[in-house]
Amino acid sequence: MTEEQSQPKINPEAEPVRVKTTGDIEVSTYLEIAKEMAGEKPVVTKEAAAPPERESIVVIDFGSQYSLLIARRIRESHVYCEMVSYDTPWEKIAPLNPKGFVLSGGPASVYQPNAPLAPAWVYEKHLPVLGICYGMQAVTKQLGGKVAPGERQEYGHAVLHISDRESPLLAGLDDAPTVWMSHGDRIEEMPAGFKALAYTENSPVAIMGSWDNIYGIQFHPEVAHTPQGKAILKNFVYNICGCQGNWTVGNFINESIARTGKLVGDGKVINALSGGVDSAVVATLIHRAIGDQLVCIYVDHGLHRREEVERTTKVFKENLGMQIIYVDAAERFLTRLKGVIDPEVKRKIIGEEFIEVFEEEANKIGKVDFLAQGTLYPDVIESAASGSTASAKIKTHHNVGGLPAEMRLQLIEPLRYLFKDEVRQVGLELGMPEEMVWRQPFPGPGLAIRIIGEVTKEKLEILRSADFIVMNEIKKANLYRQLWQTFAVLTDVKSVGVMGDYRTYGYLCALRAVTSEDAMTADWARLPYDLLARISNRVVNEVPGINRVVYDITSKPPSTIEWE
Ligand code: XMP
């Protein structure tokens, strides 16, 4: 996949884009943001997580935007999979007990100087190898075949014609399935010992395989545009690598509980609850392992949606039986936000205040040994990515900055190796309510970044009322789960309206609803007109202070999901 096709044009003179965290905020994010902004180094902590011990497939990353998707697809087939950079030494790979390797796509050309290639251990271990797109070209080059620039870029759908029906890689595939191509270079000559297993109109070698289980695929089996792609990857891991398929949510939970119990012993763990899925699942999982040795602190910054705080604390206390320290800090946050308009200053203030309140509460507990954190696998990967300033910045996100040095907390990150959909499955299996497990992401600074301009009590109340109607209507229309995020924004624009015989002068409320896979990109949701009409009607009639509603029809990029 060439980067140009997916990236928007960047104006080099434009202001640098702010780096924001994704999804629900965890305390460490606040800690990190504040510490980073203060220009201090984070307190170094020891990570207390180890990758699961089991069979695995290792994806070697050459920088394709789809690399992580390969890992996700393989895990969906119940085989544990991790992604590593192409220059990772074997010593780091061996503990994963790999049964095979997948070489990802990437933006380079193999004949460019310094083009990344597979490390020698990929071929020396005599395990099955599957090269995808650029990965196939790397295999071809390294094993003595020829790669050449294609006459033109092949981008988009193609029909696959299978020439070897006996290949275990292609078992059970439909005739002539559609596949997604995205490449410039092509295989001119296969290495010795390989034969073509399938072709498309423009790629005479769309799939190749060797007698010793090295395969290459020119298209992208990991993307949704290749409907049979998951079956091909599944064939590779089961038919060719001989995996057993022991990566299940149940196994993960059992192992995680055992590991946490052993690690913590009779120590104490604190966790900052936000109401978000990740921190909630972390808390529930750790609670299963160590019971009341876990203390959750819920800092209520007063910027949550209506009924959200009550619902969250009730679920944790009553349904899940956990110890929760609830801190009502709404006044403190509001006082500090007085007169603040700049969104990044709002974030900074909220981050700093959060740490202060959290620290005060943590200090009251006495000796604490561990801090639980809801880091997910994509965050880990992002942190490991080298070279870019964005990744360098995101990296500190996983450290615990800001805590007093004498606390010296160790991190527990039980979800460190999970994707978001796996986290949700874990939550469901642990008996957490669906409503909590499927909750849409909500930003840490909450409604403060959905009120354009100064945050006041009055505006918070107006926005909460409008937002409550939006959520209610979206849920009634059964669209909540299909949408990545849905919310109301209170703009600082006032406009004229008429109600009855009176002229009104009220706020303009914007409605935002987006679909997305990971918040990196998003599309505005094509909500039905009658639903939009219902929401608009209800908001204007039921919320004093708002007399106009608009629907945001911009995607990300070029917009962001949030308005601030
Ligand atoms: P944007 O607006 O950048 O948002 O498209 C991408 C995702 O990140 C969430 N978001 C935040 N989450 N703290 C958070 O914890 C923040 O400051 C923040 N800003 C944006 C946003 O809701 C979306 O899911």
Report on this model:
With 564 residues, this protein is an alpha/beta fold. Helices cover 34% and strands 22% of the residues. It contains 18 helices and 19 strands. The strands form four sheets. An eight-stranded mixed sheet has the order 2-1-3-4-10-9-8-6. The protein has a five-stranded parallel sheet with strand order 13-12-11-14-15, sandwiched between helices. Strands 16, 17, 18 and 19 form a four-stranded mixed sheet that branches. β12, α10 and β13 form a beta-alpha-beta unit. α8 crosses α15. The chain starts with a helix and ends in a 13-residue tail after the last strand. The N terminus is likely disordered. The structure holds xanthosine-5'-monophosphate. Xanthosine-5'-monophosphate binds next to loops.
Outline the fold blueprint.
Layout: H1 3-6, H2 27-37, E1 56-61, H3 67-76, E2 81-85, H4 90-93, E3 98-103, H5 120-124, E4 129-132, H6 134-142, E5 146-159, E6 161-162, E7 178-189, E8 194-199, E9 207-210, E10 214-217, H7 229-240, H8 249-264, E11 269-273, H9 277-290, E12 294-300, H10 308-319, E13 324-328, H11 330-337, H12 343-365, E14 370-372, H13 377-384, H14 389-396, E15 410-412, H15 420-429, H16 434-437, H17 457-476, E16 485-499, E17 502-515, E18 523-524, H18 529-542, E19 546-551
Parallel strand pairs: 1-2, 1-3, 3-4, 4-10, 11-12, 11-14, 12-13, 14-15, 17-19
Antiparallel strand pairs: 5-7, 6-8, 8-9, 9-10, 16-17, 17-18
